[in-house]
Structures are given as C-alpha cells and as structure tokens.
Amino acid sequence: MKHRNVLDWLMQTGGPIIRYRTATELLEQDPGLTLSLRDDLLSSSLVEGWLEQVCYTPSRKTIHGAHSSTFENFAGKLYEFGLRAGEQILDERVSPYISWLANQLDKPNEGYFPVLHKTITACFLAMLGYEEKQVDKHIINRLDIVHDFAIKGDLGNVYILGKTHGSFPKALKGRLLINPELYPDDEFKLPWIYDVNAFLHSKAVMNNQIHKNKVEDIISFILTPEYQRLQIGYGVVRRPKDKYYVMGWSVHLPGYFSEPQEESIGYLLLLLDTFRRSTTARDHDWFQRRFEDPRQI
What we know:
Largest sheet: 2 strands, antiparallel
Number of helices: 16
C-alpha cells in the first residue's frame, strides 16, 4: 500500500486517537480539521476515562507503580493519545508534577532512589512537550552522568558476587548484585528506559549539538552486545543497613539476539518509535531488521 493510501486508510478507518495523531503528526496541518478531530479525541470514552485517573498530589507513591492513577501510567497513556503541552486539560493535570519536580531538584537524595522518581517525572513531562527549566535541568544532569559511564565505564565491573554479603536475601537468588559504585548517592550511572525517552524527547537536549552527541554515544553503548547481555532489569541494589531491592527499567531490546517473543511486540514497537529519533539507532542492524519486520530473525 502506498504512503498516501496508508494515510487515507488511517483517516477513514481509525478511531478518534488514530485520526487525531495521523492528522497532527503525518499530514499537512489543516486547522479546521485538527480542531474537529481534537474535539472528537477529548470526548472519546477512552481519553475521558484516563483523564479521570489523574492524581493531583505528587509523591513517590503516585509517580511510580502499577496503578492507572500513577503519573507514569496516565501520562504515558495521554502521550500515546496525542495530547501535548498547551492543551489546557492536560496542563491542569500535570502542573502539580512540574511544581513537585522543581521542589525536589535541590533536595538531598533520601529514601528509595528519589533520582528514579525525578527521572520518571522529567521523562514524561518531556515526552508531553513541557520545556520548563526544571525538566531540562534534571534531564541534562542525568545525561552527563549516564554519558560519563557510557564512554568511560567498565561493563565488566557492573556486578559483584552477592554471596560475599551474608545478608543477601535468599528470595533474590539468581539475581545479580549491582556494584554500589554505580549508584553513589543514588545517582544511578546506567541508563534507565526513562532516561532514553527523556533524552530523545527533550528539545533542550536534541536541539543542542553537544548534548545530542552525548545521546548518540549513549545509544551506541546501549546497542552493544555487551550491554544487551547484562541481566534484564540490571539486578539488585544494596541500600543502607543491608537492605536489598530489585532494580529494573534497563534498556534491553526485544529481538536483539533472536526473534522477539510475541508478548514483547507491543513494547518493541514503542521502542522503535522512541529510537527512530537517534541517527545511531536508525543505522543499526537491530533497528533496521525490526523496523522492516518486528518478528524477523
């Protein structure tokens, strides 16, 4: 099917979300059409349902977790629906999280990985198109930390033997202990998937050649077999008083070494949509194979 025919097909057969995103992201702008499709989008039951999920009191518990009302989940859905900064109904809902991030930036890292929660918040704000200075400040700080390890770090030094620590929980047997040198003061040096999304969506990063070059270095690092062979989710972190927690959110790529599992295809498509913003990624064999056919070996 030719490109134009595909676009016509999407407009003719898609629901409110598909039609709106096709019109605003793939077609030449038509203000009248966009306004009409926006009204359809905001009145659709799916969008209305997710807008009602929003929690207006930011905290670590409401930013990260499995509940649909946590920031990462409702913000991720609204991003997929095509809502962006400047849409009043969205601005009202994310405003508390912008203020929360600004308030957190200069506070000491206390509790369980506050850097992760700040990164999640900045990530989805950037994806939604918010360019506030506090968003950019955190993303650029993470960019410098992750980039330093990507070009100087030793992947052979990522893990230490859990059995050398008598308090290592039996329930975590089989998971590797991440070297504490990689998270001094909770500033985790390895990239989270949230980092990658933040870097590639941030205009402050991608419109600055120095920052953009750092992003390409990080993407190149992620695309190496050595990185992809790290334990999925990275492993376990050790906290003060010998408390252990499972880390996660590594940037493992479905279909890198072999055919991806059927259940990972949806996630793979989201990754392709993110990684297409990187020249390094687009030129890589993994991206080209998966873009041509997600199930290809």
